[in-house]
């Protein structure tokens, strides 16, 4: 492979960005200069959205106005809910259902869908981010044979999602853990799904198309889909006769990858995995059952000692969400609900100085094939 071919675009700079930065050797992540630890501890998801979209932390009254406006956009039109019902009845994969329903939202947006107007795109972005949780919760309830729960405007973004999912208000601890998980997943440089959103936007397509591209990209097991795979692995270990270490050892022997480990940018433990690991432990402690946390810790230690690989964000979010009673196949839609903030921020930022994204491949096919008409082949 020649030096100019960057398989997987590793290390390639494609844009300037003031949104988030990762120091992969130090295990440090910042959003607009603020450390992820400070934001996880101090800021709500709504505050982080404001920070990403408007460039600074909001003053208290700006935050109130912003959160109120977003809460007002939570309801989803019946036409979209009818489709969600059909998708749930067909047992469509929830990420695919979210992709389809989010795409459909554009038909009902009275801000239209014309690209190139930053203010209109911000409104559309708020609407998309406000409505995605309503779609995910409605899908889950319809799949379970229950009626969707209408969103409430008096609850935070995080608490309202858990309320719509379960039909009852979450306690403060669960709402706080979920809000923190949304903060942790909101942005992460030019990851694959964000890049997909930017590629779509760079053609001067619309923001709904960008977010739809991104949802489809986040779905894969090498990216956001890993959080579901982590929990399926933990359950498989639990159902087996083997210890976690034996199970992982066998998996590696068979050439399998261990979900939730490794990262294109981090060479050390992902700072978000540290925070989520503590939450997973706390939830285990509250339930008087450390099973999932202990199993995860054993795998982490084994992977560090034998593969020199550390957990990424998906590793401990899995047992955190599971212990909150969230169905496994909703883990990735929840990631999408949060990352929509980053996708929209990057699209808006890139379009300030847009250039079509169009890389090239080194051609390896024949160059002088002689065409033979079909009836002579
Ligand atoms: C939100 C997110 O998207 S975070 C990532 C979520 N994805 C996962 O957790 C899936 C598991 N992880 C992986 O597949 C990878 O680590 C990725 C896709 C995240 C990063 O991949 P890349 O940067 O392309 O690294 P690459 O695939 O070249 O791996 C480097 C080496 O580490 C190994 N490796 C990387 N991750 C793992 C893993 N999870 N389990 C076992 N081995 C691994 C590879 O086999 C490779 O070894 P080799 O050089 O001997 O062939
Ligand atoms: O940055 C990446 O490559 C993957 C990602 O989205 C994340 O870790 O949050």
Automatic annotation (TrEMBL):
Its EC number is 2.3.3.16. GO terms for molecular function: citrate synthase activity. The active site is at residues 263, 314. GO terms for biological process: carbohydrate metabolic process; tricarboxylic acid cycle. Keywords: Transferase, Tricarboxylic acid cycle. Belongs to the citrate synthase family. This is Citrate synthase. The lineage of its organism: Archaea, Methanobacteriati, Methanobacteriota, Stenosarchaea group, Halobacteria.
